[in-house]
């Protein structure tokens, strides 16, 4: 169908049930569908929201437009989990049904206050002239998952920020509440993180902009402050960032800064880090949301998708998914991301992987892998080679991982021959440097059309979408000589 402004913002009640059921069936039947990642039942999924722990279980919401793979009238869908892996979809949680969120419930956060889950999100309101007014809205969820919105916005639009003012993260420090928001300064049209303070969640003081680094392009989205091993870490998405400030290849990066300390009352985030770094070194991670669980551990979940990028499943009327949950830690001053331990509960009986003899120039790891698996590999130092995933018989198609564990150690992921091409304007390869002459450890998760690669116990992650032809299910190595490696392959269960 042709997506006009009118059709995108039609109320959900004006859509018929049969249309939604057909869209859900179409998404479920897709050969590119995931089985152990959170994915849309139909239509578009984007930013994760309200990631939290409440009432003895984990909660996450995601922005949803269920009627097509387009950005339209956004709502929140609610999921719960006992272990950060097995998620139960509870359906629509926040609808765009008030004056203040009349054109969409946009991103936000959650925290437990007085035995209830307090949600804070951006309501998108448009005037008849289509002028946007962003309102920061509060809502309260009880232990039965009933949500009640506050009557009035918590924070209204402010003069010194343009209409790009969104994605609140609600924080508490000592006896005060703070909110950080993505913003664009009205005068300079530059990206900022806006900061507010309150004692009662009703009266808010504007503390200006958080002092954390140089100018961050023309807009900052999805700011998150989390404490990782007692160190403050700021995660955010700068749009239009000058590549002289920080290196990135995606249309918009998802970045982080490890701080030495933070003083929210002084609007100051101190760091010894010279520039922001990519949170994920792959192709398709954005809008990461992180929080500290009651046990103090820091967890993060991301949107696997990017703004302003079309994906092949758009033609099937669904798009995107969420990453698996990652546990964050700091090792020698660097941020690590690892799969949570309960991911292992999805493994079926494992198959040991070891160095096979070279046959027709290949060392075959698996000749008929499933579409949903985990593969752990340890590759000896002093080698060069290529690992192919989702490949055809002669390896002319597939995800190509080119690596060296010698003096010039590196890893490059190439998806140029992995199936249906997309987003080629932003490159088809991503490369990271590795420590020279050291063993390389890979933990690779493939799920339908998603691949997540954890390098050296989480020092790097590379996430990508790919859309391979049916039958491309081979895993194999190539090299000038026999490669030395060991590992385990597991098929993965559905969640």
UniProtKB/TrEMBL annotation:
Chain segments annotated as transmembrane: none
Pathway stated in the Swiss-Prot or TrEMBL entry: Glycan biosynthesis; sucrose metabolism
Gene3D superfamilies membership: Exo-inulinase, domain 1, Glycosyl hydrolase domain, family 43
Molecular function in Gene Ontology: beta-fructofuranosidase activity
GO process terms (BP): sucrose metabolic process
InterPro entries xrefs: ConA-like_dom_sf (IPR013320), GH32_Enzymes (IPR051214), Glyco_hydro_32 (IPR001362), Glyco_hydro_32_AS (IPR018053), Glyco_hydro_32_C (IPR013189), Glyco_hydro_32_N (IPR013148), Glyco_hydro_beta-prop_sf (IPR023296), Suc6P_hydrolase (IPR006232)
Annotated Glycosyl hydrolase family 32 C-terminal domain residues: 366-481
Compartment(s) where it occurs, according to its Swiss-Prot or TrEMBL record: Cytoplasm
Domain Glycosyl hydrolase family 32 N-terminal: 37-339
CDD domains, per the entry: GH32_ScrB-like
GO cellular component terms listed in the entry, alphabetical order: cytoplasm
Signal peptide start and end residues: none
Swiss-Prot/TrEMBL catalytic activity: Hydrolysis of terminal non-reducing beta-D-fructofuranoside residues in beta-D-fructofuranosides
Listed EC numbers: 3.2.1.26
Database matches in SMART domains: Glyco_32 (SM00640)
Enzyme class per UniProt: hydrolase
Lineage top rank: taxon: Bacteria
Pfam families xrefs: Glyco_hydro_32C (PF08244), Glyco_hydro_32N (PF00251)
Described function: Enables the bacterium to metabolize sucrose as a sole carbon source.
Family per similarity comment: Belongs to the glycosyl hydrolase 32 family.
NCBIfam families: scrB_fam
The protein's name: Sucrose-6-phosphate hydrolase
Organism of provenance: Ligilactobacillus salivarius
């Amino acid at each position: 169908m042709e997506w006009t402004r009118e059709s995108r913002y039609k109320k959900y009640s004006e859509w018929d049930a049969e249309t939604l059921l057909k869209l859900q069936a179409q998404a479920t039947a897709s050969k590119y569908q995931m089985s152990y990642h959170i994915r849309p039942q139909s239509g578009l999924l984007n930013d994760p929201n309200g990631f939290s722990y409440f009432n003895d279980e984990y909660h996450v919401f995601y922005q949803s437009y269920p009627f097509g793979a387009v950005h339209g009238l956004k709502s929140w869908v609610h999921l719960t989990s006992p272990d950060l892996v097995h998620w139960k979809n509870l359906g629509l949680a926040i609808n765009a049904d008030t004056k203040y969120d009349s054109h969409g419930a946009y991103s936000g956060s959650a925290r437990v206050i007085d035995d209830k889950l307090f949600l804070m999100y951006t309501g998108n309101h448009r005037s008849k002239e289509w002028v946007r007014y962003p309102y920061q809205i509060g809502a309260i969820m009880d232990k039965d998952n009933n949500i009640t919105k506050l009557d009035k916005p918590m924070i209204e639009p402010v003069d010194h920020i343009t209409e790009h003012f969104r994605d609140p993260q609600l924080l508490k420090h000592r006896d005060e509440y703070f909110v950080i928001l993505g913003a664009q300064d009205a005068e300079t049209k530059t990206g900022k993180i806006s900061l507010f303070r309150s004692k009662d969640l009703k009266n808010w003081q504007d503390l200006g902009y958080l002092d954390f680094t140089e100018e961050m392009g023309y807009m900052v989205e999805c700011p998150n402050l989390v404490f990782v091993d007692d160190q403050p870490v700021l995660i955010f998405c700068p749009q239009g960032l000058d590549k002289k400030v920080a290196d990135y290849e995606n249309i918009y990066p998802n970045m982080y800064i490890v701080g030495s300390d933070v003083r929210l009352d002084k609007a100051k985030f101190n760091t010894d880090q010279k520039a922001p770094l990519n949170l994920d070194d792959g192709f398709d991670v954005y809008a990461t949301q992180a929080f500290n669980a009651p046990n103090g551990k820091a967890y993060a979940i991301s949107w696997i998708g990017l703004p302003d990028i079309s994906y092949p499943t758009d033609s099937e009327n669904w798009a995107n998914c969420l990453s698996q949950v990652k546990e964050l830690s700091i090792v020698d001053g660097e941020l690590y991301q690892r799969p949570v331990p309960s991911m292992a509960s999805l493994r079926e009986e494992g198959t040991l992987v070891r160095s096979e003899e070279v046959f027709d120039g290949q060392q075959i790891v698996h000749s008929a892998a499933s579409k949903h698996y985990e593969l752990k590999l340890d590759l000896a130092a002093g080698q060069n080679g290529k690992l192919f995933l989702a490949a055809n018989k002669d390896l002319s198609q597939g995800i190509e991982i080119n690596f060296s564990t010698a003096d010039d150690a590196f890893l490059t992921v190439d998806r140029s021959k992995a199936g249906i091409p997309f987003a080629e304007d932003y490159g088809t390869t991503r490369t990271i440097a590795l420590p020279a002459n050291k063993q390389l450890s890979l933990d690779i998760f493939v799920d339908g059309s998603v691949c997540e690669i954890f390098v050296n116990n989480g020092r790097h992650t590379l996430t990508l979408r790919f859309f391979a032809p049916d039958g491309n299910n081979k895993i194999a190595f190539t090299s000038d000589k026999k490669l030395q490696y060991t590992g385990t392959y597991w098929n993965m269960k559905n969640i």
